[in-house]
Specification:
The complex is a heterooctamer, with 2 copies of chain A (196 residues), 2 copies of chain B (88 residues), 2 copies of chain C (385 residues) and 2 copies of chain D (298 residues). Chain A is an alpha/beta fold. Chain A is 42% helix and 20% strand. Classes of the chains: A alpha/beta (196), B alpha+beta (88), C alpha/beta (385), D alpha/beta (298). The interface between D and F is large, with 73 and 74 residues. The structure holds thiamine diphosphate (TPP) (2 copies) and iron/sulfur cluster (4 copies).
């Protein structure tokens, strides 16, 4: 039973994908730039790389009492294991996003809004697989209104090493563009359907 | 950059013919086997395995001399070679 | 350099980082440590922050050495701390004992993970609460502070240093993995709003100085190495001159001093918050990260018409016996959620002395307690009661 | 025949000794620990030691997880205490062959004291130290192996301590077998581990391995291959040199080789000897013995 | 060799020596230790006695190593022990935790001296009683046995080994300097009268063996190194196969197993004697050397017409809660003499839960408690009550 | 003038630095610790270091009691932890001169790890190790210094372990000053302690001393004089030899001397250097650097 | 308040004089050879040698409850410090023995039976100062009836290293003879006084 | 047995005249000062001090050269020498 006004976001993947950083950028955007409340907690295993890993973000207008995500409204999956383990927790009507190449989804709850993005592939194309998480954030900024997009941009910039700011900005925009175009095409499709 | 590809102990390896086996889901894509294979038998896949790694594929299988180098070097126990009756 | 020590502003940081900033803000300038999940981030941040403010970070060969080094640094006149988690905390115990016996101010931050032994290195527990009190051999009293958020990691670290300097002893911060790793807003106030207590220095000439002669507050002034007092410091039973004296009378005097300075100031040291307690029939008594579960649980219980309240312990040692004894006379049940199989609840039971029901909400570790479990415990305790 | 199918039709030759139900292991892409482990398995197989008589003891760390993947009696102890645990294990069952495999931090930071004393006592243990130049498990901090000036998460401006030369330390303390290889020297490494297992006494094999995730990342060698190539290019073999001259200089050479291979009675040899009373009396201290040459003013 | 292991006969020995003879008699064949007053005599005697019976003594470089070594030896299939005093006990805690987590039988004898820190090395205290229970990080249960004479040092050491083998855990002997150094008659019975329990071995083939799958008694059979079971042993949270599994569910399962095997058998483990309790209005509850003070005190009190009795605790952990709860309903006061400023008395208070008065006779250490102090406490408790 | 009167009319010249109210000290008749202490006092006086800036840190043991008799800032810590305590003390007050004085068991049995790491780091400490070949305080057990075959209360049939050569160990770990004397070499010892105090970095002075009560008693040298004479007769001075050749062979020679006296930046030198960023970047690991000669098959 | 039948003996001196061994021989004689009950407890300081040290022995027909000596009936002093600290505890009518060269007594409680013996000097004469305690035991066997003299002889023999048995036997007899002759001369003196 | 009586550093000691002082109650009778005095100035007392030890007495005082050897060697801070104006 999340308190009113609490948005719960769950991000799952492997160690090494920057899952925790992703959550923390999101929380930072909400806290420092949107001036709301946010907590980010993490869960990870002993592996430095490749172990399952998750980041739980809660964003709220009020003080957050309990920092664990119980029924996420947003679920971002960057690994199959993460998806399999957590999909049942996504609320009806929730937002599901996954990395096309890393996750295979089967039957989706119809009430969910579901998107996929080949974030890792995009990142590889941009020269560094490790930026898949930033691509994902860009994408999220397009398909949701969790936090302000400029807040998120600022949070990204202030969270990554100075030398990598430009490439990370590119990764972010790559994801965002992909999201926007996806939205547009969906909107078209919807329109089309309506018209049909 | 190819000069160092001579495996450290090449001299001691008997030349014969082998078959390389890859346990794809164990692979983490370090490329060691590909890079250090003395016969350049292997190449990287374009596909991802379930963990999101590219894994080695056998290119020209006939080149494998069953030296087991990839087998011992692979940190993942993901690749090994078996003796193959010498052909041609 | 002062400017770099107090990073006034608002941050989204985790508890480990906030702990560092609290330490730096209150004047800590020496850190000796050894990496261990989930406390490593404290050491890591200290390693680059300390040089920025003219302090020293040294990574020792183990936790035994780390603890000994901060005692040495403290006698060198510098505020010092270390951080660790369960396995390292166990290793520090002998030298925490030395710090208690020699009355050496310093701060030890234990970011608890699940044990026993190596356990679950990356996952939460509150399994070292009794160890904090009893982990070293011999009899003593200790101060242990329990933060429940990154902001409290900042604030309480400051308090930990201040108490350590005021009462001359190692003060323990009993954090946990979730508090340590959770990111939340942390507000660092301007430097002039940070209360800084420093050890009382001797005011008498060296030949009259008695390093273990307590002042009216029960605490002896402390000279540092180089101040010219030529004191002797020993972990043997010692008299007020600091000299080892091997008899029962000196033992009694010494133990009473180190015990009394805490017992006699318990009311100044103990800190807790009472939330929704005015009309409460049942009190949830919680500390550390479990406070967060408890706050939600109390809200939910109230939502269901149950008159639950919360006592949030900010310090667990010395244990607030009197407060609990009183409370036990006023409520029908006390419920304590703990990420262990029952540690502080034993103190609760003892202090309650049969006046009301006492219920534990146990959890073996690996995750924090779901609010629902607490609500249920409150309900059933009230039913039985 | 095609190798495209997902499952090869034969098991991996090491699967017998592997807890395959625990694969994949926790080590990162390109981490050298896996290769070292592979060499250990080869050595165990080749050694001919009855498998029931082989035990592995590890401490805590990435390397410390090795014991957990070996399908033999295996013990994952506490950080730094692999050697004393192994001491008890070995002395309780002297016919067993006890291999200690752990990280440099485990064996030589927190565990340094046990290391030097076990070497001094010449306990019959085979100690394999995976040296990745930092603490891998906790995310890459400064270790007693970190090269001067190298960056780690606790030496972001560069490491201000000189590292140990572990081989020199082992030899100075009395180890009877001392060798160092990189994880690319797979055959020599396997041979050394085998020799060490057969050696009576304290044997020490150091293996330089890539830790791309931590050490590599902080030192501009993020890619596993780069690191391994670097080790390969820089390593030079100098067998039987005094290990204190076997320096690891990242700007020049990483000297590897088999440095020490000597005989010395083990702890248990001496213990039995003395407790059978066979050594006879300890020499009287009274100056009845032939006097040494004295200098004019001593 | 068997003959040399059980030195049947009557002796005038001290407790440290008697402890060794008990250990040898029950089959201990490995000792790793580090000298420390007042436990050194245990190591010294073991150093020459063990070779006589084909066992091994090794003096390690410190107590960390000693504790780790006996765990290793136990997995090597040999009954093993170490002995120490406070400072060393503190250092052993981390590896006692490993022993608890990996369920490794062995015995640790702590001959207590006065602390904290180096304290009074040659003088008595009972200051590590809570440390015995809580000294290692994480949650667990422990067994601690408390002898009050050299004869009990012999008898209880045998029991300590037997319990450790039966329940697969390190068992603590919480002796003290006076019991350790006092000489008294010790009778060593014939070998065939000594009860020897040895660990249960697996009876299934190796591929079916689950090293942490408990039998009906809550304890899993234990294979030793070399038995061919190829087991894995880890201090990480592990499942029944012994494999590390890093989640809350496995944590709960593991902790419950190591806690339950003690809690469920508490009544078999707990041992105490009731002396002059039939008509007692006040019970002196005492353990260890303070039993000797208490026995005289009860005799004196009875001499003065006070109906005092004695509960002599032979084990302190697990704490005999039920017995005390009952007792508290039957007597008017419980009085506990302890050579510390109040440790086990807290358990007494907790268990009594307000049903009767509970009084501590504290003593800081350096000497044992005078019977008069106990008599006085009994008197005044009865007056108030 | 008669010396028959009980109280001499002048105080002892060392009384200034002594806690005379604690005399007599606890050391046994003929114990060498007192002599070493006397030499320390002479060295401190001669060194000219302001007395407020001198501190002594000891661990636990007979020797560990030294700190308690010195009328300067002095710290009697826990067994084995004198060096890490001193590390904190020194780093907190770098202008201070910190002397660590303790027994061989304290410094090199339980404290061995701190010893080797402090030497490696080159912490600016003066470490004086009183080596009486056993654990004096606890009544004479086997120590890592006990000669092979010697009897102690825990090696009644003779010690079955080889001892450490502490000087060799210190040098191997990086000590910049290493010397060994017996407690009869009072002037050389005093000089060495003074040199060690003035040396920047980890200095180590080992002193062989009689422990008649324990070591002597079990090894047929119960009388203090016998032991001291034995040391005197057997000791030979070999300055600047490689300390690993400076063996202590009770049947032949006890080699003493000043073995090492070199310069090396201290921990703090390097720490400051690196944290001022003065060292520049740690060399890239990328193989851009001149390549070392490679062997045909590496 | 010692229980009936309990004999309390306190032996004080310096570390290195064998004070603890003395107590333990006494207790052994009572326990193993006289077949009575005995406890011996010790108290000593950190010094291996020269620190003050005491040994407390209780001998009884019954089980001994409390092992500390509170009001000794016998006090043996082998150091000044030991004498000064403990003399007040000796019961009226008690037996006091001291080493002539090491202890100076002043006013003695008249009810005490008081003896001195130059035990250390005798031991030095016998070649080893360290045997003063055995001399003392021999003396004690003459001037008291705490334990049977043969029990004590046996206890001495079984407690000292094999090589030193003969010299220790000599030391014992030296003390015993001194005690016996002292008793005789006292008896004479008493007789003389009576006759006078 | 006298040959080794040469103190280790005798060569460096200036010859002058001294007066030896003994703090009797600190002495524990080790005899070092007596044995190692280069001039055989000292001898053992027959008396005991309060701790039961014999202590050194000055024999032929005139022989003392104020070398301080006994002073530094004495483990008890029980003996020292002071400079005496050279006589004769
Ligand atoms: C007492 C204790 N201190 C610290 C830790 C945390 N810890 C786990 S592994 C490790 C170091 C790992 O480094 P290394 O031994 O070099 O092994 P690697 O991971 O590099 O293989 C540390 C500090 C611990 N588990 N226990
Ligand atoms: C943790 C701990 N273990 C053991 C002891 C007991 N102990 C005190 S001193 C000592 C050894 C003394 O030997 P050494 O350091 O050589 O000094 P010495 O007494 O010979 O001068 C020991 C084992 C202790 N005080 N603390
Ligand atoms: S060496 Fe192993 S892990 Fe690396 S790419 Fe080849 S198969 Fe994969
Ligand atoms: S962190 Fe480093 S050492 Fe650990 S598994 Fe990864 S690469 Fe290997
Ligand atoms: S026991 Fe040995 S080291 Fe200790 S004071 Fe006596 S003679 Fe010296
Ligand atoms: S050297 Fe000192 S202690 Fe020894 S006999 Fe001379 S004065 Fe006495």
């Amino acid at each position: 039973m999340p308190a009113r006004n609490e948005k719960e976001i769950l991000i799952t993947g492997f160690g090494g994908q920057g899952i925790v950083l992703t959550g923390s950028i999101l929380g930072k955007a909400a806290t420092l730039y949107d001036r709301r409340h946010a907590t980010m907690t993490q869960s990870y295993g002993p592996e430095a790389r490749g172990g399952s890993c998750s980041s739980q973000v809660i964003i709220s207008e009020e003080e957050i009492l309990f920092p664990y995500v119980e029924q996420p409204q947003v679920l971002i999956c960057m690994s199959q294991e993460g998806y399999d383990k957590t999909k049942a927790s996504l609320v009806p009507g929730g937002l599901l996003i996954w990395d096309t190449d890393l996750v295979t989804t089967r039957e989706l709850e119809p009430s969910w809004t579901a998107y996929q993005i080949p974030a890792t592939r995009f990142a590889e194309e941009l020269g560094n697989k490790m930026m898949a998480n930033i691509v994902m954030l860009g994408f999220l900024s397009a398909v949701s209104e969790l936090v302000g997009v400029d807040s998120l941009r600022q949070a990204v910039q202030s969270s990554v090493p100075a030398k990598t700011r430009d490439t990370n900005a590119k990764a972010f925009e790559r994801g965002r563009e992909y999201g926007e175009s996806l939205l547009k095409s969906r909107a078209k499709k919807d329109q089309g359907q309506e018209q049909a | 950059m190819k000069y160092w590809r001579v495996p450290l102990d090449l001299g001691t390896i008997p030349a014969s013919r082998g078959k390389v086996m890859v346990i794809e889901e164990r692979c983490k894509g370090c490329e060691y086997c590909i890079e250090f294979c003395p016969r350049e038998v292997l190449q990287m896949s374009r596909a991802f395995n379930p963990k999101g790694y590219h894994f080695p594929e056998v290119g020209d299988e006939s080149k494998c001399v069953n030296c087991h180098f990839c087998e011992v070097l692979c940190p993942e126990f993901a690749i090994f070679s078996l003796a193959e009756p010498a052909v041609a | 350099m002062a400017g770099k020590a107090v990073l006034t502003g608002t941050y989204f940081m985790n508890g480990d980082e906030a702990c560092c900033e609290g330490a730096l803000a209150v004047g800590c300038r020496f850190f000796a440590g050894y990496p261990i999940t989930p406390a490593t981030e404290v050491a890591e941040r200290m390693s680059w922050r300390l040089p920025e403010v003219g302090g020293i970070y040294i990574q020792m060969e183990d936790e035994l050495a780390s603890m000994a080094a901060i005692l040495g640094a403290s006698w060198g006149g510098v505020k010092a701390m270390t951080s660790t988690s369960g396995p390292g905390f166990s290793l520090m115990m002998e030298n925490i004992g030395l710090g208690l016996c020699t009355e050496t101010p310093c701060v030890v931050c234990n970011v608890q993970r699940a044990g026993p032994s190596t356990g679950l290195p990356t996952l939460v527990a509150q399994g070292d609460m009794m160890q904090a009190r009893w982990g070293a051999h011999g009899h003593y009293e200790i101060i242990a502070i329990v933060p429940s958020s990154p902001q409290e990691m900042f604030d309480f670290t400051i308090r930990a240093f201040n108490l350590s300097e005021q009462y001359r002893l190692p003060v323990l911060i009993m954090a946990d993995e979730v508090v340590g790793h959770m990111n939340e807003r942390v507000v660092i106030p301007p430097a002039d709003q940070i209360q800084v207590v420093s050890r009382k220095k001797p005011s008498v000439p060296p030949d009259q100085y008695r390093p273990y002669q307590p002042g009216p507050d029960g605490v002896a002034p402390m000279a540092d190495f180089g101040d010219g007092y030529h004191m002797h410091v020993t972990g043997l039973t010692h008299d007020e001159r600091g000299y080892p004296v091997m008899d029962a009378a000196t033992q009694e005097q010494m133990i009473n001093r180190i015990v009394s300075k805490i017992r006699d100031h318990a009311h100044q040291i103990i800190s807790y918050d009472a939330i929704a307690m005015d009309d409460a029939e049942a009190a949830v008594v919680a500390y550390g990260i479990s406070v967060r579960s408890a706050r939600r649980a109390v809200a939910e219980a109230r939502g269901r018409g149950i008159r639950a309240g919360l006592i949030k312990l900010n310090t667990v040692w010395p244990f607030p016996e009197e407060m609990i004894r009183d409370l036990a006379g006023r409520v029908r049940a006390l419920v304590m959620p703990e990420i262990n199989l029952g540690q502080m609840v034993r103190e609760l039971e003892r202090a309650a002395a049969g006046r009301c029901r006492v219920r534990l909400v146990p959890h073996a570790g690996g995750s924090i307690i779901r609010p629902g479990a607490i609500v249920q415990a409150v309900e059933s305790a009230l039913k039985e009661a | 025949m095609s190798t495209k199918k997902k499952k090869p039709d034969a098991p991996h030759p090491h699967d017998e000794l592997l807890r395959t139900d625990r694969m994949p292991h926790i080590w990162c892409t390109g981490c050298g620990i896996g290769t070292v482990f592979s060499c250990v398995l080869s050595a165990v197989e080749k050694s001919g030691t009855p498998l029931d008589d082989v035990a592995m003891v590890s401490g805590i760390g990435c390397t410390g997880r090795m014991a957990g993947y070996l399908k033999l009696d295996s013990f994952h102890t506490t950080h730094g205490r692999a050697i004393p645990f192994a001491t008890g294990l070995k002395l309780a069952r002297p016919q067993g062959c006890v291999i200690v495999a752990s990280g440099d931090g485990d064996l030589l930071a927190i565990g340094g004291n046990h290391f030097i004393h076990a070497a001094r006592r010449n306990l019959d243990l085979t100690v394999i130290c995976v040296n990745n130049f930092n603490y891998g498990m906790t995310g890459g901090q400064l270790a007693p192996s970190t090269p001067f000036g190298a960056r780690t998460t606790t030496s972001t401006q560069g490491c201000s301590e000189e590292p140990f030369n572990f081989c020199a330390l082992a030899a100075a303390c009395g180890a009877v077998y001392v060798a160092r290889w990189t994880s690319l020297h797979i055959r020599r490494l396997t041979t050394s581990i085998g020799e060490a297992m057969n050696k009576r006494g304290f044997s020490f094999v150091e293996v330089l391995t890539p830790c791309p995730t931590s050490f590599g990342r902080h030192n501009k060698m993020r890619k596993p291959l780069e690191l391994l190539k670097f080790y390969h290019e820089r390593s030079v073999i100098r067998n039987y040199i005094d290990p204190k001259d076997a320096v690891l200089d990242f700007k020049k050479n990483l000297v590897v080789g088999k440095f020490v291979d000597i005989e010395r009675p083990t702890f248990l040899d001496n213990y039995r000897l003395l407790n059978r009373g066979e050594l006879g009396d300890w020499p009287d201290l009274e100056p009845k013995l032939p006097r040494p040459e004295k200098q004019a003013s001593g």
